[in-house]
User: What shape does this take?
Amino acid sequence: MFDLTGKKALVTGATGGIGGAIARALHASGAQVALSGTRQEALDALRAELPGSVALACNLSDPDETDGLIGRAEEALGGLDILVANAGITKDGLLLRMKDEDFERVLDVNLGSYFRLARAASKGMMKRRLGRIIAITSVVGVTGNPGQANYAASKAGMIGFTKSIAQELASRGITANCIAPGFIVSPMTDALNDAQKEAITKSIPAARLGQPDDIAAAVVYLASDQASYVTGQTLHVNGGMAMI
Amino acid sequence: MSDVFDRVKKIVIEHLDADADKVVENASFIDDLGADSLDTVELVMAFEEEFGVEIPDDAAEKIQTVGDAVKFISANAG
Assistant: This one.
């Protein structure tokens, strides 16, 4: 339905469950995709699966590497139309026990790298008068979650950041939006026992966990020409577990 | 001076899609040439690239006309 033929996209955290699904969906819609992550083998495997894609290993906790990633993607793809800032980390813990470095590292990787990537990507997008900046945040950035003060702060920060740059860049044909996944099937949720899974699904009106493809479909929509009038928004994809 | 002016003028015409004869020394980017605040940032970045000069934020704020840009660049470029 949404045609991304000829578009060039960068997906960070592409070797994760959601990132991989996003990369596949963009590719299936016709985009040429640059895959970024820290695990070279997993990147190579995904690249082999997606003809025309390129693998760009990058450690987003390193500011210089992060600053350089957009340039590498633009060079490899011949431009960049779509940035999907998907990479993120967690260092969960209750406030009283949270170490400085756990707070700072989560803010730095999740929010800091998004800032650096968006700053670098917007330069070329402004020149071309076209661009899509899409940040994968989280429902907890809006609702909060005990044990995830650092993570929730980083995700809420991404939302505020996105709203600000959406206003700065709208006149240049660039949109910036967030997608906030709820509970999505992942290796982490696979590890839960049946009782835990049942408790979670009870809190979700759709009565199931989300799939990575549910998030990927939202990315494809926001990346499309049809979504050109949607900017500064947070699209919640959570089966109704939070209606905001 | 004139070489710098010509290169500045070329950048301004390209970025703002401005009429060549309107890009004169005392033309204000915003008031006379139709630039918005984002355009002025883009122009400053383009000047930095073209002339290999760094334009700090406080200096960039004072560059409001074509002549301001030429003066800063002439005084600071290599």
Notes: The helical segments of chain B are 2-16, 37-51, 57-62, 66-76. Chain B has one domain: 1-76. Residues 5 and 70 of chain B are 6 Å apart (CA to CA). The first helix of chain B runs from residue 2 to 16.
